[in-house]
Amino acid sequence: MSRVKLVWFVPEEALDATREAVFDAGGGRIGEYQRCSWYAAGTGTFLGGEGTSPALGESGRDERVAELRVETVVPEGRIRDAIVALRLAHPYEEPAYDVYPLLDQ
Predict the structure, then answer these.
(1) Which residues contact 40 (CB under 8 A, 6 or more apart)?
(2) Comparing C-alpha atoms, which of 2, 25, 40 is closest to residue 86?
(3) Which residues contact 62 (CB under 8 A, 6 or more apart)?
(4) CB–CB of 60/50 below 8 Å?
(5) pLDDT tens digits, residue range 34-93?
(6) What is the reported pTM?
(7) What strands, in cross-sheet order, belong to the sheet with 97-101?
(8) How far is CA 103 from CA 6, 80, 91, in A?
(9) What is the CA radius of gyration of the chain?
């Protein structure tokens, strides 16, 4: 089965909700293990333009917020479902996420 890595950035208080959503959509399985993920703390930056309504900070101001970088694997055929689930569970208007192809060896 071909898998991809899904990475997203989230405030700590939304970690469990976003992980749960991605796991329910089929992510986080490695062999006989389930709910597998990795996360680490960092700082996210943004400047919201006119008409934005940031979950943290203010629009029109250069912001720095504490976030977690979360990583998990998702079957390639389930990545769209996982992204939809992530976006619905995420508190940000525009959640930042990346999808990376993985080489199965």
Answers:
(1) 68, 69
(2) 25
(3) 45, 47
(4) yes
(5) 999 999 999 999 999 999 999 888 899 999 999 999 999 999 999 999 999 999 999 999
(6) 0.92
(7) 38-47, 62-75, 3-10, 97-101
(8) 14, 19, 32
(9) 15
SS3 21: helix
In whole angstroms, what is the distance from residue 102 CA to residue 6 CA?
10
Phi-psi region of 80 (alpha: psi -120 to 50; beta: other; left: phi over 0): alpha
Residue 46 tokens, joined: 């943004």
The SS3 call for residue 92 is coil
DSSP letter at 10?
A: E
